[in-house]
Design goal:
Layout: E1 6-14, E2 18-21, H1 22-26, H2 33-40, E3 44-47, H3 54-68, E4 78-82, H4 93-101, E5 107-111, H5 117-130, E6 137-144, H6 154-157, E7 162-171, E8 177-185, E9 193-194, H7 206-210, E10 217-218, H8 220-242, E11 251-254, H9 259-268, H10 280-283, H11 290-300, E12 309-316, E13 320-327
Parallel strand pairs: 4-5, 4-6, 11-12
Antiparallel strand pairs: 1-7, 2-3, 6-7, 8-13, 9-10, 12-13
Helix pairs in contact: 3-4, 8-9
This protein binds acetyl coenzyme *A.
């Protein structure tokens, strides 16, 4: 990376009010609170109201992040929304959000990298700022996974929730800011986690809907193995690129997919639980929103201090992964 210091100068998050508990799910599919908690660590997740789309959740998170940065919407030069559940195919959710915010000067586009989307977005925005093209970028992870979840499928319905997290990026004093980025993809694993219906290969039709192809499908076991492997390798690479050791990490902010995946990362990094943000029990897997919600919540709770070395790491459909080291 060059000398220009780019960092996060504001954060915010939003989750819908409606709670879907494991007890609620027990009434919908053949499962139990005990099974879900043991296998995933999830106790409840949030579900968007019928009239809430991804841009509505993103809007609430973005407003808070912009205010937290001490900026106005007109100060934002770039908006990136990482999502797999856009409001529509097009216009992009980022452009819908630009209008809602009144961020008239901002360029805006969506980024599709599933649960890794927020880290991909941070890397993209950070580079726009370090080249001098833009001053302030708004990066949002937002998803309404409840709209693509099959609530008759116990393999997936227990995992996902809805929400949005946002970060404003800008220049920061020397010694702070992003120290490394690692982004990866392996398309050979694409079929392990996908939504086929409605795309150009499988356009929406009565048949595609009858076959449930408008829902997310996942091979959980294989994704689990991939996740454990890649959380480890991506974390190590991000630390190496930043010139840091495991012992230098003050706070791990991992993708919140499954407590067992997070625990495995903690073991490999030899970190204690108090050095990790964990909210998977309350929000489930919120895809691209998971890491920025975890970060914004930790900031709000006073768990992030100036000079702290943060490690972000996540994985998702694609398959994709990403990690980043940031000095707060
Ligand atoms: N309740 C009760 N039993 C269940 C449930 C359920 N909700 N779901 C599955 N089972 C059953 C299975 O049918 C299976 O029964 P069988 O042995 O008779 O066939 C048994 O429980 C064990 O199932 P496994 O799939 O082996 O369970 P596992 O321990 O692997 O846990 C889980 C499943 C939680 C999905 C896990 O594999 C996982 O977390 N994988 C990673 C998923 C993930 O992170 N996905 C998100 C990626 S990010 C993104 O891009 C959106």
């Amino acid at each position: 990376m060059n000398d220009t210091q780019v960092g996060i100068i504001g954060t915010g998050f939003y989750v819908p009010d409606k709670v879907l508990s494991n007890q609620d799910l027990e009434k919908m599919v053949e499962t139990s609170d005990e099974w879900i908690v043991t296998r995933t660590g999830i106790k409840e997740r949030r579900i968007a109201a019928a009239d809430q789309a991804t841009s509505d959740l993103a809007f609430e998170a973005a407003k808070k992040a912009i205010a937290n940065a001490g900026l106005a919407a007109e100060d934002i030069d770039l908006i990136i929304v990482a999502t797999v559940t856009p409001d529509k195919f097009f216009p992009a959710t980022a452009v819908i959000l630009q209008e809602k915010l009144g961020a008239r000067k901002a360029a805006a586009f969506d980024l599709s990298a599933a649960c890794s989307g927020f880290i991909y977005g941070l890397a993209t925005a950070s580079n726009f700022i370090s080249t001098g093209m833009y001053r302030h970028a708004l990066v949002i992870g937002a998803d309404v996974l409840s709209r693509i979840t099959d609530y008759t499928d116990r393999n997936t319905s227990i995992l996902f929730g809805d929400g949005a997290g946002a970060a404003v990026l800008g220049r920061v004093p020397k010694g702070r800011g992003f120290r490394s980025f690692v982004l990866g993809a392996d398309g050979s694993g694409g079929e392990l986690l996908q939504l086929e219906g409605g795309g150009s290969r499988c356009p929406s039709s009565v048949e595609s809907v009858q076959q449930g192809r408008h829902y997310l499908r996942m091979n959980g076991k294989e994704v689990f193995k991939f996740a454990v492997r890649v959380m480890d390798s991506a974390s190590e690479e991000a630390l190496r690129k930043a010139g840091l050791e495991k012992t230098d990490i003050d706070l791990l902010v991992p993708h919140q997919a499954n407590i067992r995946i997070i625990q495995s990362a903690l073991e490999r990094l030899e970190l204690s639980k108090d050095k990790c943000v964990i909210n998977v029990d309350r929000y489930g897997n919120v895809s691209a929103a998971s890491i920025p919600i975890a970060l914004a919540e930790a900031v709000e709770q006073g768990k992030v201090h100036e000079g702290d070395r943060l490690l972000f790491v996540g994985f998702g459909g694609g398959l994709t992964w990403g990690a980043s080291v940031l000095v707060w």
